[in-house]
Amino acid sequence: MKRTLVFALLGILAPIATVSFAENPRPRAREAGVVTGILPAGPLNAITDVAGVMVGHATLIVGEDTRTGVTVVLPHPGNVFRDKVPAAIFVTNGFGKLTGVTQVEELGTLETPIALTGTLSTWKVADALAEWVLRLPGNGEVLSVNPVVGECNDGDLSDIRKRPVGREQLLAALNAATSGAVAEGCVGAGTGTRCLGWKGGIGTASRKLPPSLGGWTVGVLVQTNFGGLLTVAGVPVGVELGRYAFKDELAAPERGSCMVVIATDAPLDAHQLRRIAARVPMGLARTGAFASNGSGDYTIAFTANPLCRVPNEARGTRSVTVLADDGLSPLFLAAVESTEEAVLNSLFAATTTRGFAGHVSEALPIDRVLEILRQHRALAAPAPSTKP
């Protein structure tokens, strides 16, 4: 069973506890009858449907003012520095922090797991990730490492200036990382985030192309923390719920972020991966996002296909036959659809959270959302649960 590590402080520091996300009674979007797109989902409808990909969370809840954490995505279970994977980064709106961007753009490879956290903890997590990579067996002579760490600002629900996430939490998330179903909502890097007027968090989804379109899998994981007009299956739900961007002329400026990680098993090079990553804003827009001025929207895409790995010793000499560009279009659609559903899953899974300075972020009222969708004839038959 996939587990999430939770750190809690109730007067004194408590031991690390493990909790099962199966205890969350809230359904995923598809389980409630919200089916978007035309491509079939993978067996778990998660980024871990891509073979070899692993996800881990560490959730940090301290007193009344800390609601944050870290989430890691591992491209494969081996030493990623020794066996790098082709990767690319696409920036929709660059109001944010993402370490390691320029090297990924220059070399087209990823050499560490990807970590997501709260804004001001970015560099502490990056330092811890670099240290972890340097200590891996076989890396004793390594003199440079490029940790890739992204963030969303969870400062409304968490005292972000404390910069509470660091080495301990990063190691816990790495140790907890497994394949299989992925915990969503208020876990890891999504513990203190908000989205489209409601509690956001971690969400994931996937698409499995039919054999006629290549049979490849595309998986997406999101950390949602952005504003806009909540749109579900094409229905402007946010308007009917009375929460949306610029509803009140006195409203605070729209800001927030969304970190997106894409994994696939298709044999692709970095240029092709960047083209796939560039389709993510279309999926975000389907949910009502519009990349506001203060939004840091980044996508990191990689292929987990073992044949595409670049051993450190190869130094650029290794080559592999990649998919023809004419075969990319189904992957583009899979990325768009998976992104849309991952955002919805982050909202459906998240629970009402009270945090810093008494701020409260309410959970999306699922029953009311389903009622609105039913009125618009936008509901399908509920799908079987993918929770363990």
**Broad CATH class:** Alpha Beta
Q: Mean pLDDT, nearest integer?
A: 92
Overall 3D shape:
globular
Give the total of beta strands: 18
Radius of gyration: 19 Å
* Structural class category: alpha+beta
Measure the end-to-end span: 7 Å
Give the second-level CATH assignment, the architecture. Answer: 4-Layer Sandwich
The run of helices and strands is EEEEEEHEEHEHEEEEHEHHEEHEEH
The CATH topology assignment is L-amino peptidase D-ALA esterase/amidase
According to CATH, the homologous superfamily is: L-amino peptidase D-ALA esterase/amidase
The stretches of 5 or more residues where confidence is low (pLDDT under 50) are 8-22
Kindly give the count of domains: 1
Describe the 3D structure.
Strands 1, 2, 3, 4, 5, 8 and 9 form a seven-stranded mixed sheet that branches. This protein has a single domain, classed as L-amino peptidase D-ALA esterase/amidase (4-Layer Sandwich). Helix 2 crosses helix 3 and helix 6 crosses helix 7. It is built from eight helices and 18 strands. Helices cover 21% and strands 26% of the residues. It is of the alpha+beta class.
